[in-house]
Specification:
Elements: E1 18-22, H1 27-38, E2 42-47, H2 50-64, E3 69-73, H3 81-93, E4 98-101, H4 116-145, E5 149-153, H5 166-186, E6 192-198, H6 211-221, H7 230-241, E7 252-255
Helix pairs in contact: 1-2, 1-7, 3-4, 4-5
């Protein structure tokens, strides 16, 4: 039985869309892959850890069928990884509609530490250069899609800073710049590019922080007084990828419970 006629005309469905989610083996990436699959998309699960890739693909296949997910285990810092990912997705599904650049590393190192140069290089390779390469190789397919969507995951560390994370903060600030430039460049060809800056979220990156320390931090710094759940970030990512989000591009949106706007 069909429902009443709709008064609006823009679609809020990603049914049948072909999405790449990097860093999808855990945390926000895994939550994003699950959500897109639940909403009808076909999802390429990309992560450096093969076992985690296989696990997430199996989770999606167990609910939605094997045709809804493919797994790609690759180190995105490799110079050929972006092309490998795009070719695999196009070979599987004939095209690409959505790119979620979520993969990232957080490697603490003080400016005077001996390993700073190595930390800097690895962090920028994974967090920024890999996003640029994926954008580069995905762009022709996103344009051909007719309504391509890109969501780059940065961090509130691009807006506020923590000691010993200068490489991470610089890479995430770079993601914001990359997002804005790509939005201007690809907008005339129908592709939107937006950026999300997650704040304190329960992921593998924050797993080592004791629960008591998290609770204390949230009470002092986060207006909502808690850490976020990965799926809460995933839902904003999905919203930016909807056909109905066709006039949103170049946006930089914090998902941080209000942390970055709190002064005292």
């Amino acid at each position: 039985m069909s429902g009443p006629p709709r008064l609006s005309r823009l679609s809020r469905s990603v049914e049948g869309r072909r999405a790449v989610v990097t860093g999808a083996g855990s945390g926000m990436g895994r939550a994003t892959a699950h959500l897109f699959a639940d909403e009808g998309a076909r999802v390429a699960v990309v992560d450096i850890d093969r076992a985690r890739v296989q696990s997430v693909v199996a989770e999606i296949a167990g609910v939605h069928g094997e045709e809804r997910a493919v797994g790609i285990a690759v180190d995105l810092a490799s110079g050929t990884a972006a092309e490998t990912v795009c070719e695999a997705v196009v070979a599987a599904w004939g095209g690409l509609d959505i790119l979620v650049n979520n993969a990232g590393v957080s490697l603490p190192s003080r400016l005077e530490d001996r390993d700073f140069d190595d930390t800097w290089a690895r962090t920028l390779d994974v967090n920024l250069t890999a996003q640029a390469r994926l954008l580069r190789f995905a762009a022709p397919y996103l344009v051909a899609s007719g309504s391509g969507r890109v969501v780059n995951i940065a961090s509130t560390e691009a807006l506020v800073s923590t000691p010993s994370l200068s490489a991470y903060a610089a890479s995430k600030a770079g993601v914001i710049g990359l997002t804005r430039s790509a939005a201007v460049e690809l907008g005339p060809r129908g592709v939107t590019v937006n950026c999300i800056c997650p704040g304190p979220v329960d992921t593998a990156m924050t797993a080592a922080i004791p629960a008591e320390a998290k609770a204390t931090y949230a009470r002092r710094r986060v207006p909502l007084r808690r850490y976020g759940d990965p799926e809460e970030v995933a839902h904003l990512t999905l919203s930016l990828c909807l056909p109905a989000a066709s006039f949103v591009t170049g946006a930089v949106l914090a998902v941080d419970g209000g942390m970055s706007i709190r002064h005292t």
